[in-house]
Design brief:
Elements (H helix, E strand, L loop, with lengths): L1 H22 L5 E4 L1 H8 L5 E5 L3 H6 L6 E2 L7 H8 L5 E5 L4 H11 L4 E5 L2 H7 L6
Parallel strand pairs: 1-5, 2-3, 2-4, 4-5
């Protein structure tokens, strides 16, 4: 009886996780390397660059023309919905790629077309791409 109970719980957990994956936007955004990200953001008419690091990190160095909304702030989603148009692609990055993946998932779940920079600004700097 215990074994059957554990199997049922495992199946329920797997089904819930699978259902939540789509709701959270996990598969709803693309992660690209530095060169593809640079090519994408060159089209300033249809792409907005979003830095989701803290204001302090942003002020140290950021990708040119990036706007800053800290994903760790409670107001992140509200600010993003107010500032970001849904008719443009949002090219998002952070320090290493983890926070920006979280942000991309949140915003993709709200209907945004998201592209995440793999490796974040660390990869950008390593590739000697321009910063402000």
């Amino acid at each position: 009886m215990n074994r059957m109970y554990l199997v049922v719980i495992l199946i329920v957990v797997v089904l819930v996780a699978w259902a939540m994956k789509g709701k959270l936007g996990v598969d709803a955004f693309k992660t690209v390397g530095v060169d593809e990200f640079e090519t994408l953001i060159a089209d300033a008419d249809s792409v907005i660059v979003l830095d989701v690091r803290t204001p302090l990190e942003y002020n140290e160095a950021h990708i040119p023309h990036a706007i800053n909304i800290d994903v760790k702030e409670e107001s992140f989603k509200t600010k993003a919905l107010e500032l970001l148009p849904k008719d443009k692609t949002i090219a998002v990055y952070c320090r290493s790629g983890r926070r920006s993946a979280d942000a991309a998932g949140i915003l993709a779940g709200e209907g945004y077309q998201m592209v995440n920079l793999d490796g974040g600004i660390l990869a950008w700097l390593k590739a000697q791409k321009p910063i402000e």
